[in-house]
């Protein structure tokens, strides 16, 4: 009998993302960008299901990417342009 909860722990997040608990813990330690922001309750890392779903939708739609710094590239010249 499993209870539906709005708070995920490392175990629940690992199942939801299809990863191992060890990779989630290592990701927390390294601060990787593919993990949603967590909070601590006592000594456990936790995530709200709603936040994880929004994070995954943003990731899918490319919203997680920061704009690249620098000038935009010009298209390179072609042989038609040279003649």
Describe the 3D structure.
Helix content is 41%, strand content 12%. With 83 residues, it is α+β, with helices and mostly antiparallel strands. The chain has a domain at 7-60: Orthogonal Bundle (Arc Repressor Mutant, subunit A), CATH 1.10.10. The model has no long low-confidence stretch (mean pLDDT 86).
Physical arrangement of strands within the biggest beta sheet? 1-3-2
Shape: elongated
CATH architecture of the domain at 7-60: Orthogonal Bundle
What level of helicity do the residues show? 40-55%
Give the class from helix and strand content and strand pairing.
alpha+beta
Spans where pLDDT lies below 50 across 5 or more residues: none
Describe the main β-sheet briefly. 3 strands, antiparallel
SSE order, one letter for each helix or strand = EHHEEHH
Radius of gyration: 20 Å
Strand content: 5-15%
CATH topology of the domain at 7-60: Arc Repressor Mutant, subunit A
List the helices and strands and how they pair.
Elements: E1 7-8, H1 10-17, H2 21-30, E2 39-41, E3 44-48, H3 49-60, H4 79-82
Antiparallel strand pairs: 1-3, 2-3
